[in-house]
Amino acid sequence: FYGSILRNDYVPNKSDIDVAIFTDNENSTIYKLSDFLNIKNTDFKKIVYKINTKVVHGYKYMYVNGNQDIKIEISIYNNKYKKIVTDEHIKCENLPYYITWMLIIIKSLYYHLGFISFDMYRKCKNLLMNSLKDSQFMLLDFSKLYM
Predict the structure, then answer these.
(1) Residue 6, SS3 per DSSP
(2) In 3D, which of 50, 43, 100, 96 has the Cα closest to residue 73?
(3) What whole-number distance in Å separates Cα of residue 49 and Cα of residue 62?
(4) Are 16 and 71 in contact (CB under 8 A)?
(5) What does the alpha-carbon distance between residue 31 and residue 7 come to, in Å, rounded to a whole number?
(6) Which of 113 and 139 is assigned the larger pLDDT?
(7) pTM (2 decimals)?
(8) Spatial separation of the C-alpha atoms in residues 60 and 16, rounded to whole Å
(9) What totals of helices (H) and strands (E) does the chain contain, helices first?
(10) Which whole number is the average pLDDT over 89-113?
(11) I need a surface site. Which of 35, 92, 138, 144 has the fewest CB within 10 A?
(12) Which of 129, 100, 103, 37 is nearest to 74 (CA)?
């Protein structure tokens, strides 16, 4: 687990839960998860994650269980990337207090008050979080391209 679930800015029934899975065989893991979650294996989208000078490849899927208001962002990486990815995630566990407060304010404006759009929420959050990291993330889905 990583992300807001480990910090003070997690919002129950609103925030997603981030899970990173490291494996020797990404395709096998995707097929097993697809079968377990009853989804298509093509629902996992290819990602490229640049951390410092290293390029990390992986897959992501956003699992949503509407009955229980649970959202889980599943990331799958090869074991060879485990140290670099986990080190990057650890950087975001203990945020400076001012960034934590800003995240709580932004999440309140979006989740509880509805004052800002999802796009604005995402831009503000990315700006705050990316100021702490030496990484860039790209989802390779040609219908939606996020950076």
Answers:
(1) helix
(2) 43
(3) 17
(4) yes
(5) 31
(6) 113
(7) 0.81
(8) 13
(9) 4, 6
(10) 91
(11) 144
(12) 37
Predicted pLDDT of residue 81 = 96
Has residue 134 got a pLDDT over 70?
no
DSSP letter string, 35-95: HHHT--GGGSEEEEEEETTEEEEEEEEEEEETTTTEEEEEEEEEGGGHHHHHHHHHHTTS-
The first and second tokens of residue 50, run together, are 């640049």
Residues with Cβ within 8 Å of 41's Cβ and at least 6 positions away in sequence, in order, are 30, 31, 34
Bridge partner list, 78: 23
* For the chain, the helix, strand and coil percentages under 3-state DSSP, each to the nearest 5: 40, 30, 25
Share of the chain above pLDDT 90, in %: 63
Cα distance between residue 10 and residue 6, in whole Å:
8
Backbone angles phi, psi at 2, to 5 degrees: -150, 175
